[in-house]
Design brief:
By secondary structure, this protein is α+β, with helices and mostly antiparallel strands. It is built from twelve helices and 28 strands. Strands 1, 2, 3, 4, 5, 6, 7, 8 and 9 form a nine-stranded mixed sheet that branches. Helix 5 packs across helix 6, helix 7 crosses helix 10 (479-493) and helix 10 crosses helix 11. The longest helix is centred in the middle third of the chain and has 23 residues, at 271-293. The two termini are 39 Å apart.
């Protein structure tokens, strides 16, 4: 296990002369929520709040100097508002400072009575799912529409947010979110809604690893009481008949047990080997967020999630699912991918959960690319944090699980994303039209350049070459500062609608928070974004 790193807020905040230094106690989360509620009342006009709107707290961040940041979701006449989220920033004494809003302007719509019926919206959702998987026979397709106010795509309008889900011919899950104008029936947007990555245990990829387990009678369970009772279970090669909130039944998560507390044999002949990888990855990701960022679990509440391994039939994917608060891993087809439980992939999936509990970046367009990049960035930093000799840190994603049939050395390459044949190195106005796994390339490229700089170097035994889009030569500030800046931006400054221009602003603000205005770190952030054609 990696040694504990210095925590984020204790080591890097420049505002050390704040409330704590002045002898005042640092506010609690409850105090922050109370102060923010007062700020909403006193600054309703500036925040665009009206009597028809409601707010609900999603997340709270309290800095060591006492500064408070409270994130809200918003409703209009009891309907969820897509793009209604905002973050209120308060001084240590609770005074209002500023706010970051996903969208500005009035969120009102003339009516909350739709012209398009819910069954019609459901039909359009299932049609969109089938269209996205043209040529495949989909089974058990169903849809569930929810009436919302859509403020993410221009002027607010009444819309249906429809979750459509089904199974492909192998029984593996497919799912799509479809946003439909509730007046005209026209599709506004759509995106895939499965956020994918595509004792000791003898794991498949990380060697023999330490595992915290639970003794029940004379049998050990692969469940970690020290990390919120996170556990790993066997899906028994079954699949869900429950995607998001559309449920028939779920694949099992049969808890792995063992008599001697030695899990797996390092090969796929023992089903516990993949479970050892998944549990080790969950442990390491938990430790990374706690050691480095002071975050206690995915939701920051100390509660663990769970893993399901051996999901489906030759399933070439892994995914995070908010509805079960769990990570799910396929075995791969054996030709292109092995079991998808490599360390950076487990960090990637668990980080989707962190994003969903903080900025909740919309999984579409540029925001979706930033969502995927966030998971790639933190999955990579988890790999470095583990300091595992069998899987040393590098800036390749999924390099351990790819097989010769895949034709490339990794799923994605952060130093030069276009090496995968599809991802974007540089921002352009067309980036938002790419699949989110490819539009993520711009932020992945930025992250690599910020941490490592440009030019060739060997990292983790792998040759990297940081290219730039503007011909600049950059020096990096290190992966630790990258992680702190990106986490601060994600949890304090980004919102659901953040695009690349907004990510530049959010990371500049984060660098200012952590290192000061005009600092070398803030200047490096600006230079790295310029090097990928943002700003």
């Amino acid at each position: 296990m990696a040694a504990a790193a210095v925590t984020l807020l204790a080591s890097t905040l420049t505002a050390t002369a704040g409330a704590a230094a002045a002898g005042h106690p640092v506010p609690s989360r409850a105090t922050a929520v109370r102060d923010a509620a007062a700020a909403l009342t006193g600054h309703a006009t500036a925040l665009g709040l009206t009597a028809a709107q409601g707010t609900a707290v999603r997340d709270v961040v309290v800095d060591k100097d006492g500064s408070q940041h409270v994130r809200y979701d918003r409703t209009f006449r009891h309907l969820p508002v897509l793009g209604g989220d905002f973050v209120v920033h308060l001084a240590p004494d609770g005074a209002y400072r500023s706010a970051d809003r996903a969208v500005r302007g009035d969120l009102a719509v003339p009516t909350v009575t739709p012209s398009l019926s819910a069954p019609s919206a459901a039909d359009l959702g299932t049609a969109a799912l089938r269209s996205a998987h043209r040529g495949e026979k989909l089974l058990k397709v169903a849809a569930r529409p929810q009436l919302v106010v859509d403020a993410l795509h221009g002027a607010p309008r009444l819309a249906w947010r429809t979750e459509a889900a089904g199974k492909d011919s192998l029984g593996n899950p497919v799912a799509r979110v479809v946003i439909t104008d509730a007046r005209t029936g026209r599709q506004i947007d759509a995106w895939d809604s499965l956020e994918t990555a595509s004792g000791d245990g003898r794991s498949l990829y990380s060697g023999t690893v330490p595992l915290e387990t639970t003794l029940s009678g004379s049998t050990y369970q692969l469940k970690d009481a020290t990390r919120g009772n996170t556990y790993s279970g066997d899906a028994q090669n079954k699949t869900d008949s429950c995607i998001l909130s559309i449920c028939w039944s779920r694949a099992p998560a049969a808890l792995f047990t063992d008599a001697d507390n030695h899990w797996g044999n390092g090969t796929t002949s023992d089903r516990a080997s993949a479970a050892a990888d998944a549990q080790y990855g969950t442990d390491t990701t938990w430790d990374y967020y706690k050691d480095v960022h002071g975050r206690n679990g995915i939701a920051g509440d100390g509660k663990g999630s769970y893993n399901r391994v051996h999901y489906g039939n030759k399933y070439n994917n892994a995914f995070w699912d908010d509805s079960c608060f769990c990570m799910t891993y396929g075995d791969g087809d054996g030709t292109t991918f092995g079991p998808l439980v490599a360390l950076d992939v487990t960090g990637h999936e668990m980080s989707h959960g962190v994003t969903s509990k903080t900025a909740n970046l919309t999984y579409s367009g540029e925001s979706g690319g930033l969502n995927e990049a966030t998971s790639d960035i933190f999955g990579t930093l988890v790999e470095f944090h583990a300091n595992n000799a069998q899987d040393p840190g590098d800036y390749l994603i999924g390099e351990k699980l790819v097989k010769p049939g895949f034709g490339k050395a990794a799923l994605r390459f952060m130093d030069q994303p276009s090496k995968d044949g599809s991802s974007a190195d540089c921002w352009s106005s067309s980036v938002g039209s790419l699949d989110v796994h490819y539009s993520s390339g711009v932020a992945n490229h930025f992250a690599y350049l910020l941490a490592e700089g440009s030019g060739p170097k060997t990292i983790g035994g792998v040759q990297h070459n940081g290219t730039t889009c503007n011909g600049a030569t950059l020096g990096g500030i290190g992966k630790d500062k990258l992680g702190k800046i990106w986490y601060r931006a994600l949890t304090v400054h980004m919102t659901s609608s953040t695009k690349y221009a907004g990510a530049r602003t959010a990371t500049l603000d984060a660098a200012k928070d952590l290192y000061g205005a005009g600092s070398a770190e803030q200047n490096a952030v600006a230079a790295a974004w310029s090097a990928v054609s943002v700003g």
